[in-house]
């Protein structure tokens, strides 16, 4: 492992998950090789190793980043949190069904669902006929992965054909192998006391899947023609087999050799051999044989080693062998056939020139997989996937255009969804989006007055029609044919509708639209008496705050503010734990709105304890939505069913908007630099400062992608996302104005000076006509 100094200087840091040396298994050796060979050839890549542990077989992993108890699902979640907190650039999982806990190794999903950095998954086995459970696990891993690595082209073809994985997301890197000189058999035979013997070797953990019984059965036909022939079987019995059956399999093989009279032509090395000794023993061999009966075997590290060392290889055509030994590199034989094995061995031993030629072909093929080439391929894979510092920085706080917003509207209202950037009429309209669209029209002063009047009337008419006096509720969903899908919408939709009405009553562009909004707000306000959803009440509270700003003695709005403050303050006190300063046990969507509503209720009613509690909870949720590297990481939508957790995906623009506008409310009562910084961080999320370096917002059109998935940006540009981005901009702008005012009134205290985003990052003078241009 690297020293701490090397770790700090690393260009890339990768969390590497799997079994690890000195554990005696092929995946552990593979993982160890990744670390060792990358250190040799790409020392600027640092690996934080998280090793699977089995309490029944403890090993000392030495100085690694962490261990994961194989059969403890909570430990996978704890490891995910440690990895997220470490700020790595990528995560690399070695997948084999048997090394993780749960049915078919499903516990690895408890980690995968919680990690934020881009994910690489190496599938050591890709089954052509997986069980239903095995397939679901692989599908989930693939869905989360930015890149899937396999070691054979056949595995790539299976992924493309069975799992519909695009070729661009699959990386084929053949198993790495050592770079040693060619043709040193005699030297190593002498060192092992094997001179004057023709040596054939099999390596690896011993079990029925190796086909050793077929090789032993072939020996009489070989030794009768080549009496100096020695077959070496090197490797311990597989520990799982030992646990179930002891050494009965090995004993059966020995008994078979005795019956056939070939025991004197077999040498057993009954132990797990470390890599360097394994290579020495391979060098002492003339022929390497793998007789696996299972032709779905994906990879064999020892096969790669044997080819790279220039050994003549005889093998059944399992997946790895069929590719590596093609074009005469080795000899492929039918499985479960002692006759085929004997014929292939005798053919080579009867013709020393052909034996030497095959060895040379193997050595030449092995140059493609030697460790320097392998390490280069690993570095390219990591660079392709790793999360960079933002790929595109937001330079100026520019006003986004509105063309993309207008493209999503017709004379009924704003469509809910889009396929890419094309409005999807199948899903019609909803009051949630049309209420937010009305709020945007009130703020977007780049929209000319005729267009603003027309669009405000359109969205107001939608809301007016959505109001159902028979149920005293707003309807929410409308089909494209203008038919309503329901008589009453959800609590949250109704709360958001009241918010939009209060906002329009205060900020509407014309007195006519403000007058209309005041009337419908007053008519609909009583519906909140029957709504107890905290989030719906928070939305309505924000509307009530606007209503009181315009009409300070509005009794109904004041009553709602008092009810909301009492409820949210009580919920916060009841749900608080030492590590959980929140209103509920589960984080949902639009989370900062709960804090924002409590702050606004305290500010307007003069209840200082509410304001302080709102600020405290907002500081907590802000800390939960920052990555270890300081980027905004919205609480993901997958969090909703996980109490006392925050999962990173899918990330949605609504959370960034809420963070910005809540920060603006906080700044009104606590003019601290922290709120300006947090809003700035959340706004930059739209422009690539996020877990995938994905640019979501398009200033030229004003459109916005629907969020960030584990694999990058969701290409769709729906109404909620467009509106969240547009309103986030105006929220940032309002906070910038407040911050500038506070800075001017502070008399130039450095702590309160405007915060620059970067060179040229200034607000347009037209936005702040009475003051000089300000940095934000």
UniProtKB/TrEMBL annotation:
Organism of origin: Croceicoccus marinus
Keyword terms: Transferase
Superkingdom of the source species: Bacteria
Region (Disordered): 740-776
SUPFAM superfamilies attached to this UniProt entry: UDP-Glycosyltransferase/glycogen phosphorylase
MF GO annotations: glycosyltransferase activity
Protein name as catalogued: Glycosyl transferase family 1
The keyword Metal-binding is annotated on this UniProt entry: no
Residue span(s) of domain Glycosyl transferase family: 187-364
């Amino acid at each position: 492992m690297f020293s701490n100094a090397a770790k700090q200087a690393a260009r890339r840091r990768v969390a590497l998950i799997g079994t690890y040396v000195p554990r005696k298994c092929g995946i552990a050796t593979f993982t160890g090789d990744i670390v060792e060979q990358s250190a040799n050839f790409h020392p600027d890549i640092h690996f934080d190793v998280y090793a699977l542990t089995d309490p029944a077989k403890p090993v000392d992993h030495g100085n690694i980043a962490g261990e994961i108890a194989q059969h403890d699902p909570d430990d996978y979640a704890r490891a995910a949190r440690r990895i997220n907190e470490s700020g790595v650039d990528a995560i690399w999982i070695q997948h084999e069904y048997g090394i993780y806990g749960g049915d078919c190794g499903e516990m690895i999903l408890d980690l995968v669902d919680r990690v934020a950095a881009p994910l690489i998954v190496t599938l050591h086995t890709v089954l052509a006929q997986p069980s239903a459970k095995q397939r679901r696990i692989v599908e989930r891993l693939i869905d989360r992965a930015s890149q899937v690595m396999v070691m054979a082209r056949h595995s790539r073809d299976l992924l493309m054909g069975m799992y519909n994985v695009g070729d661009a997301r699959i990386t084929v890197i053949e198993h790495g192998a050592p770079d040693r000189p060619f043709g040193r058999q005699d030297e190593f035979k002498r060192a092992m006391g094997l001179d004057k013997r023709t040596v054939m070797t099999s390596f690896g953990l011993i079990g029925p899947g190796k086909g050793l019984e077929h090789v032993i059965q072939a020996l009489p036909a070989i030794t009768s023609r080549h009496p100096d022939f020695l077959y070496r079987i090197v490797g311990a019995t597989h520990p799982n087999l030992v646990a179930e059956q002891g050494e009965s399999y090995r004993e059966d093989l020995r008994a078979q050799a005795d019956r056939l009279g070939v025991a004197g032509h077999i040498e057993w090395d009954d132990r797990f051999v470390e890599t360097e000794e394994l290579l020495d023993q391979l060098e002492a061999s003339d022929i390497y044989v793998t007789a696996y009966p299972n032709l779905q075997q994906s990879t064999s590290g020892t096969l790669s080693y044997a080819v790279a060392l220039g050994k003549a290889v005889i093998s059944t055509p399992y997946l790895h062998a069929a590719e590596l030994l093609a074009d005469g590199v080795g000899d492929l034989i039918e499985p479960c056939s002692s006759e085929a094995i004997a014929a292939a061995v005798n053919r080579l031993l009867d013709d020393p020139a052909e034996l030497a030629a095959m060895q040379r072909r193997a050595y030449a093929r092995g140059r493609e997989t030697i460790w320097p080439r392998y390490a280069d391929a690993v570095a390219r894979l990591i660079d392709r996937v790793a999360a960079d510092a933002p790929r595109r920085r937001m330079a100026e706080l520019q006003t986004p255009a509105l063309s993309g917003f207008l493209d999503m509207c017709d004379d009924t209202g704003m469509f809910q969804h889009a396929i890419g950037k094309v409005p999807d009429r199948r899903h019609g309209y909803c009051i949630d989006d049309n209420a937010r669209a009305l709020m945007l029209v009130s703020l977007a002063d780049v929209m000319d007055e005729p267009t603003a009047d027309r669009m405000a009337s359109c969205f107001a008419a939608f809301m007016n029609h959505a109001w159902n006096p028979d149920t005293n509720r707003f309807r929410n969903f409308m089909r494209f044919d203008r038919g309503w899908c329901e008589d009453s919408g959800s609590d949250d939709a109704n709360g958001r509708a009241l918010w939009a009405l209060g906002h329009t009553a205060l900020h509407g562009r014309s007195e006519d639209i403000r007058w209309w909004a005041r009337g419908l707000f007053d008519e609909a306000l009583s519906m909140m008496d029957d709504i107890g959803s905290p989030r719906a009440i928070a939305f309505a509270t924000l509307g009530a705050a606007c209503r009181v700003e315009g009409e300070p003695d509005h009794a109904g709005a004041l009553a709602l503010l008092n009810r909301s403050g009492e409820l949210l303050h009580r919920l916060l006190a009841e749900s608080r734990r030492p590590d959980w300063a929140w209103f509920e046990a589960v984080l949902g969507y639009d989370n900062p709105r709960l804090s924002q509503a409590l702050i606004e209720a305290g500010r307007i009613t003069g209840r200082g304890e509410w304001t302080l509690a709102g600020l405290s909870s907002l500081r907590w949720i802000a800390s939960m939505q920052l990555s270890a590297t300081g980027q905004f990481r919205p609480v993901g939508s997958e969090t909703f069913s996980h109490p006392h957790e925050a999962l990173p995906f899918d990330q949605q623009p609504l959370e960034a908007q809420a963070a910005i506008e809540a920060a603006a409310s906080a700044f009104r009562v606590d003019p601290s630099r922290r709120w300006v910084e947090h809003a700035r961080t959340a706004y930059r999320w739209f422009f690539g400062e996020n877990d995938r370096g994905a640019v979501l917002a398009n200033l030229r059109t004003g459109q916005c992608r629907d969020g960030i998935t584990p694999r990058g940006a969701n290409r769709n540009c729906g109404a909620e996302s467009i509106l969240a981005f547009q309103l986030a901009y105006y929220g940032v702008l309002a906070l910038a104005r407040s911050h500038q005012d506070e800075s001017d009134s502070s008399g130039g205290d450095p702590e309160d000076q405007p915060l620059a985003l970067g060179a040229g990052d200034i607000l347009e003078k037209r936005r702040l006509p009475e003051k000089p241009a300000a940095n934000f």
